[in-house]
Amino acid sequence: MTAFAEAPAIPAPARRLGLGGGLRNTFTLTWRSVLKIKTNAEDVFGLSLQPIMYLVLFTYVFGGAISGGTHKYLQFSLPGILVLSVVFATLGTGLMLNQDITTGVFDRFRSLPIARWAPLAGAVLGDMVRYIISVAVTLGFGMILGFRIETTPLAAAAGCLLLLLFAVAMCWFSALIGLLVKTPQGVQLFGFLGMFPLVFGSNLLVPSDTMPGWLQAFVKVNPITALTGAERGLLTGGPVGTFALRSLLWALGIFLVFAPLAVRVYRRKT
Amino acid sequence: MRYDASNAIDATGLVKRFGKTTALAGVDLAARPGRVLALLGPNGAGKTTAVRILATLLRPDGGQATVCGYDVLRDAHQVRQLVGLTGQYASVDEGLSGTNNLIMIGRLLGLSRAQARARAAELLARFELTDAAGRIVKTYSGGMRRRLDLAASLVGSPRVLFLDEPTTGLDPNGRTDVWAMIRKLVTEGVTVLLTTQYLDEADQLAHDIVVIDRGKVIATGTPDELKARTGGQLLVVAPADPARLAEAAALLEALSGAEVATDAEAGAVSVPVADKAVAPRVVRELDDRGIELAEFTLRKPSLDEVFFTLTGHRTDGDDNETRELENSR
To answer: In the CATH scheme, what is the homologous superfamily, with its name and number, of domain B231-300?
Structure first.
């Protein structure tokens, strides 16, 4: 065993941690999340394979029946598949939080003199990287299959940004489930129970005109419909304004409801 | 109720309930600076709950506690700067390498990138993990993981270290290694609060022992004081003819004056004996009555038997139960 030098002197305990310190903690934990994506090959694999699977399946299974051709359908469905991939990717936030709690990593964080909100904020920020991977793979593979952006690159970039904003709001819902449910399996189950009706009860994969009236009413108010509409407008042309505004308002609303709830549950665990 | 600011850890009347279960029913404990205090008890006794309260992870429902003079509730942020915690369930990140785990904690504690890196290398060397430093923790053995966990709790050079069952699940070599590391820390002036189910672990490491059972302190003292209290030795007698078990039990009770435990399944009776003259007398009496023996043993009591002596019941319960209760809230 080697000789043990004294650690850098730790000053007398400080009374509290400022916002700057909290942000530094958050960035350290963001770094950790990103490192974990790099080392967890399964995660990256699943993250990239899922959108590819959706694209291939939906385009060739539904394409002919819905739009009379795969290219025409791809132009219609790709914005929707982008939304679907990113929304499902937010489940990862809840899964990771849940894993941190069950493995005791959160106990370690909570025993350290760091900002109480930093582990949550770090997890959310770190997951941005996962959403970016998801968007990039969906868009890139879509273009290989023949998808063409019909608007400007600037509009397309705005579309990606809007997706990321929405995902950051949605992942607080996922975080709440991750904090409330006991096992990763539970997170998957409850996450999908919450997300499936939202994702598929929309015009994301099919136009809504053939749906029964009650479902059309749901599709109309569904935030996913608004987001999909905005993405279609920004990527393939068409109206953007109200859809984008509604998506932003929804994102803000979801954030304002679920972020404080998640923080509260997290604090109560403390 | 006593409050002494010179103690590194001081707790009085700690109470914690989870729903209808009372995990702690008024626990007092004190750790002298630079010493090892062992919290000894069976599963479910409330050891983990006590450590979690002292490490600011859990709010007590009653009582108060200080660490280095700082209140665990009011001054939690200060307490967190002074303590290190190694949980019963290793709390290192399995998805990161050993080095990155320690760098992360160093950075969270406010060290610069270079300082955190240097500190990580130093601790990895100290815990003989340098060869595995770059590997993902998922690939570590149980003993390596426990050592990394211990290293992680030392990044901030804590003045008080909480070790919740640091050797549970380790093989004998791993245990000896961890013991050596704890002893080394104590020579450096760190105060250690250790929970354990093993009497010999408390015996090996602790200056003071607090025995807790079902949320209550049932004995306090140095290892020697406690051993004396349990009557020193345990006498076990098994008649060759099981039908004469009750007769042997009555005889033992009469001669030792202590309460006899009968294990009908094993066909044996046992009794704690403090008086060195008891065993020979028992042999003479058994011989007089013509009771032949399958077993006659005089030995040090196990923790199970110490508990029986101190509490009148066997060790039972399950610590996971309290943990689950905690999580279900």
So the answer is: Elongation Factor G (Translational Gtpase), domain 3 (3.30.70.870)
